[in-house]
């Protein structure tokens, strides 16, 4: 996302510690949909992450906790290798120096060390049940299924995608989605599948365990960052989300699935009941959700550069959307998957009729 050179957020980040705006240790904006963020040097050494929410966001995921830093502070000593929370009048996270694990590692495998540490994270999350997290929650009581109601948990996620993403802030994209084969009622099949889920005891979930949220530090250790989408729910959801976002090879996905099962079963055996059957149902939801997310984000990316359509960008976004549609053909009940040319044509038509629209951000 483009940020002005004289960003107000960057200036406030620098002013907080009396630094010039062009200080070489200020890094950013950091990658992320939800916030404009910068790494800022601390007086005592190291750096902190200073961030502010982006304005006008379209949210594609439910939020559960009021403030990420409050959750992280609550988890200190119980979940290893997560950012330390620092109080400078406002709560900041210590910046984890290192590199991201990356996205789309289909041709690679996790190192034995990272595989072990990922399993440790899964186990630590499984050990934190519905009454073990004290951080403030913002979801309504009516939006919290009772412990173990995996059907209710997934149904609420589906309803959020249908009601908030599609029906509310997706109105401007209904025609585009329909042109791509995604029409009203596309999630009805998933709602039926959700009814078959086995009940599993709820635990804390990270909610967004992809490679850009997994940092490898200078010692080669794996850290989990960006807990914005953490929630309480079916522990199998974290595995489904991780597999969907990482795009592992089949063999590596099987390895990671095995380490999840062993790690979670060692902490709470009841949390792995029915996982063999239910994993595909939850992964189907992630595939379907990605279609709505990718279709809208692609349209927003194109609409930020009117009045002329960027053809190179069009081909890139069309490729991503076409892949998402192909992956979600079964869960969305699509009669056919449009070709790359058909996807690009649908976006070109949409752009022509919406090029004068100022689009909000998407998250």
Strand content is: 5-15%
Query: pLDDT below 50 for ≥5 consecutive residues: which ranges?
Result: none
Largest sheet geometry: 4 strands, antiparallel
* Sheet with the most strands: spatial strand order: 1-2-4-3
Terminal Cα span? 11 Å
Order of helices and strands: HEEHEEEHHHHEEEEHHHHHH
Mean pLDDT: 91
The gyration radius over C-alpha positions equals 21 Å
Number of DSSP helical runs: 12
Overall body shape: globular
**What is the strand tally?**
9
Which structural category do the helix and sheet elements fall into?
alpha+beta
Helical content class? 40-55%
Short précis:
With 363 residues, the chain is α+β, with helices and mostly antiparallel strands. It has 12 helices and 9 strands.
Task: Give an overview of the whole structure.
The chain has 363 residues and is an alpha+beta fold. The protein contains 12 helices and 9 strands. A 4-stranded antiparallel β-sheet has the order 1-2-4-3, sandwiched between helices. A hairpin with a 5-residue loop joins β1 and β2. It is globular, with a radius of gyration of 21 Å. The model has no long low-confidence stretch (mean pLDDT 91).
Which short descriptors sum up this protein?
9 strands; single chain; 363 residues; 4-stranded antiparallel β-sheet; alpha+beta
Helix-strand layout with pairing:
Elements: H1 8-16, E1 35-41, E2 47-53, H2 68-75, E3 85-87, E4 91-94, E5 99-100, H3 112-126, H4 150-168, H5 174-179, H6 188-194, E6 203-205, E7 214-216, E8 222-224, E9 231-233, H7 236-246, H8 250-267, H9 275-303, H10 311-327, H11 329-332, H12 340-354
Antiparallel strand pairs: 1-2, 2-4, 3-4, 5-7, 6-9, 7-8
Helix pairs in contact: 3-8, 4-9, 7-9, 9-10, 10-12
């Amino acid at each position: 996302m483009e940020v002005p050179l004289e960003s107000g957020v960057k200036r406030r980040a620098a002013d907080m510690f009396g630094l010039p705006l062009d200080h070489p240790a200020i890094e950013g904006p950091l990658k992320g949909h939800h916030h404009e963020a910068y790494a800022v040097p601390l007086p005592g050494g190291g750096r902190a992450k200073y961030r502010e929410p982006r304005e006008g966001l379209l949210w594609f995921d439910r939020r559960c906790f009021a403030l990420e830093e409050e959750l992280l502070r609550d988890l200190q000593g119980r979940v290893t290798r997560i950012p330390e929370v620092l109080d400078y009048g406002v709560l900041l996270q210590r910046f984890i120096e290192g590199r991201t694990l990356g996205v789309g590692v289909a041709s690679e495998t996790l190192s034995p060390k990272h595989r072990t540490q990922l399993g440790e994270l899964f186990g630590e999350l499984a050990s934190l049940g519905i009454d073990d997290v004290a951080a403030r929650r913002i979801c309504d009581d009516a939006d919290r299924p009772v412990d173990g109601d995996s059907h209710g948990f997934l149904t609420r996620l589906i309803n959020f995608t249908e009601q908030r993403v599609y029906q509310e802030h997706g109105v401007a994209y209904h025609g585009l989605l329909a042109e791509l084969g995604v029409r009203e009622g596309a999630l009805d099949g998933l709602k039926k599948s959700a009814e078959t889920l086995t009940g599993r005891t709820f635990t804390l979930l990270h909610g967004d365990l992809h490679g850009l949220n997994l940092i490898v530090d200078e010692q080669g250790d794996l850290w989990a960052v960006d807990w914005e989408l953490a929630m309480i729910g079916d522990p199998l959801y974290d595995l489904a989300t991780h597999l969907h976002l990482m795009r592992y090879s089949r063999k590596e996905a099987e390895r990671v699935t095995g380490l999840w099962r062993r790690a979670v079963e060692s902490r709470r055996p009841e949390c792995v009941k029915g996982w063999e059957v239910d994993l595909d149902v939850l992964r189907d939801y992630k595939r379907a959700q990605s279609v709505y997310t990718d279709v809208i984000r692609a349209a927003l990316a194109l609409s930020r550069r009117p009045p002329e359509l960027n053809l190179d960008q069009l081909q890139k976004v069309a490729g991503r959307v076409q892949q998402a549609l192909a992956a979600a053909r079964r869960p969305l009940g699509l009669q056919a998957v449009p070709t790359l040319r058909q996807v690009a044509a649908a976006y070109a038509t949409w752009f022509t009729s919406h090029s004068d629209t100022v689009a909000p951000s998407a998250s």
